[in-house]
């Protein structure tokens, strides 16, 4: 190889080396900052192809996507001096690259630690001013909205981070307090159950007493109507008998005697009667004459 060709290769290699060290690309999902001897010379580099001075300037890239901070469950004290265990998380992303780098030196672990500390402080202050009921259900959503706004304002100034959302996954009570709450709830439910049973028993006795009263009234009215109907029937029968007797008293007496014979002689009983008794007069004479 000639010296000229060798020189050309050396120059080409140097150019390629300078290009590889000087050219860099910032992706759409990244935020970048340019440093010169550790000092920030350009912040918030836009996505695309850029140039830097080789071996002098350094480019730091950071993930610009939304990230999740999942904190460990922590104990907080409410306004009623009751402890609660809160498990929360936050959605965040880099807002100001210069402030983010200065606060965390570009370390995501450091950023999450600082953000977790601020989040816990916000939760502690917010929960301390509210009762257990307000924290658990009453003002939970409103509390999260307020804490998100306050935390976002603080982190943008101190960390260059924007907090998009903050939510509570679970709120639990300590074991001793949970047992006390459950016992109180059980006692309250038992009291309500006894009250309902007492009311039901009272209502049942009232219904039973009313049913018994109606039964007595209905039976009395039915007996009265039955006796009245029976009396009317007996009266009608007596009237019919009297009418038939008046039409033919002799025939009526004859039929009555035949009926008496039929009912008497059907049985095996012994009758001790005088032969001259009126009971046998129709047996002696068809006209019933003595």
Automatic annotation (TrEMBL):
InterPro entries linked to this entry: Band_7, Band_7/SPFH_dom_sf, HflC
Broad class of the protein's primary localization: membrane
Keyword set includes Transport: no
Coiled-coil regions listed: none
UniProt keyword terms in alphabetical order: Hydrolase, Membrane, Protease, Transmembrane, Transmembrane helix
Cell inner membrane among keywords: no
GO process terms (BP): proteolysis
SMART domains: PHB (SM00244)
Compartmental location: Membrane
Membrane topology type: Single-pass membrane protein
Gene Ontology, cellular component aspect: membrane
Any Pfam family: Band_7
GO molecular function: peptidase activity
Residue ranges constituting the Band domain according to the UniProt record: 21-185
Family: Belongs to the band 7/mec-2 family. HflC subfamily.
Function: HflC and HflK could regulate a protease.
NCBIfam families assigned to the protein according to its UniProt record, in alphabetical order: hflC
Descriptive protein name: Protein HflC
Designated gene of the protein: hflC
């Amino acid at each position: 190889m000639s010296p000229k060709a060798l020189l050309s290769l050396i120059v080409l290699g140097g150019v390629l080396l300078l290009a590889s060290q000087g050219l860099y690309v910032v992706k759409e999902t990244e935020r970048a900052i340019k440093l010169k001897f550790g000092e920030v010379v350009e912040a918030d580099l836009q996505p695309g192809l850029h140039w830097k001075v080789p071996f002098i300037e350094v480019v730091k890239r950071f993930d610009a996507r939304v990230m999740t901070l999942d904190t460990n469950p922590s104990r907080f004290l409410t306004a009623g001096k009751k402890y609660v265990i809160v498990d929360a998380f936050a959605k965040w992303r880099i807002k100001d690259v210069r402030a983010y780098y200065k606060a965390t030196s570009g370390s995501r672990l450091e950023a999450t630690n600082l953000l977790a500390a601020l989040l816990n402080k916000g939760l502690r202050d917010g929960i301390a001013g509210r009762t257990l009921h307000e924290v658990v259900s009453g003002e939970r959503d409103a509390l999260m909205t307020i804490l998100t706004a306050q935390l976002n304002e603080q982190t943008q100034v101190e960390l260059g981070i924007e907090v998009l959302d903050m939510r509570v996954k679970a709120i639990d009570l300590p074991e001793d307090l949970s047992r006390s709450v459950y016992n109180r709830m059980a006692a309250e439910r038992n009291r309500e159950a006894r009250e309902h049973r007492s009311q039901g028993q009272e209502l049942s006795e009232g219904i039973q007493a009313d049913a018994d009263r109606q039964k007595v009234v209905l039976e009395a009215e039915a007996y009265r109507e039955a006796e009245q109907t029976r009396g009317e029937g007996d009266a009608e029968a007596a009237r019919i008998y009297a009418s038939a007797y008046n039409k033919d008293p002799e025939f009526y007496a004859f039929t009555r005697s035949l009926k008496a014979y039929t009912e008497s002689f059907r049985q095996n009983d012994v009758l001790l009667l005088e032969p001259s008794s009126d009971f046998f007069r129709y047996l002696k004479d068809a006209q019933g004459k003595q």
